[in-house]
Amino acid sequence: xxxxFEYDDIVGxxxxxxxxxxxxxxxxxxxxxxxxxxxxxSHLLRVLHGKKHLSLGKAMSIAKKLNxxxxxxxxxxxxxxxDIAKDDKIKxxxxxxxxxxxxxNMRLQLDAESLEEFTDWLFFxxxxxxxxxxxKNDTNWITKRLNISSKQLSEAIAKLRKRKMIEISPQExxxxxxxxxxxxxxxxxxxxxxxxxxxxxxxxxxxxxLTLVVNPKDLPRAKQLISEFINNFNDEIxxxxxxxxxxxxxxxxxxxQKEP
Length: 260
Known about the structure:
This protein is 54% helix and 2% strand. It has 260 residues and is mainly alpha-helical. It has a two-stranded antiparallel ribbon. Helix 5 (70-84) packs antiparallel against helix 6 (88-105). It starts with 9 loop residues before the first helix and ends in a 23-residue tail after the last helix.
């Protein structure tokens, strides 16, 4: 079924679900769709034409009928509240909340095999570069921007395409099938940090370090704080209109040896 996080309004999502059902069964009608959603065909038609908004109760009912997960249901209810809101300021707040939820829930989830395959900095740099303003579907432009060879680019594109992490149009244009926000942890992050250690111009980077005394019982909280920082940093800094690719690496490790 279509991912609800790809849509900014309920109408688009409901139309996509209907289209999928129609594709599987050409005899599937709006009346059948309404029956599945427990809503009259006339009511459904008005909703799909934008002439009527779904109530929160009806939105919740539809979420159950479509077997949406709790996070998907929450997103659907936010869409419903945005549609119902009459005050522009309140509507804007829902738009902001939806954007944040979309970013949180459309993070690319990779299995262990995928992570093992994509620990090279190049893959993530290329995915980020595709999102930049002014991105050019030009091999020379991409290789110069990332300082890589044409062979490296071809191999990276082939792997990403195989994993359906990028799409290639008939016109050979590269695009992302969804928003990607990948947070690596553990050994994978360690290797990525090693591979991306480059000399940067002073005004292009910010280096800082902190050495502190830690009680081992506070380690879970420390890791939680780091995770929260990364998520907040991403929400604040990752841009839809950026034109450069940066990487943030964090390391938190023990300097002293454990006492015998």
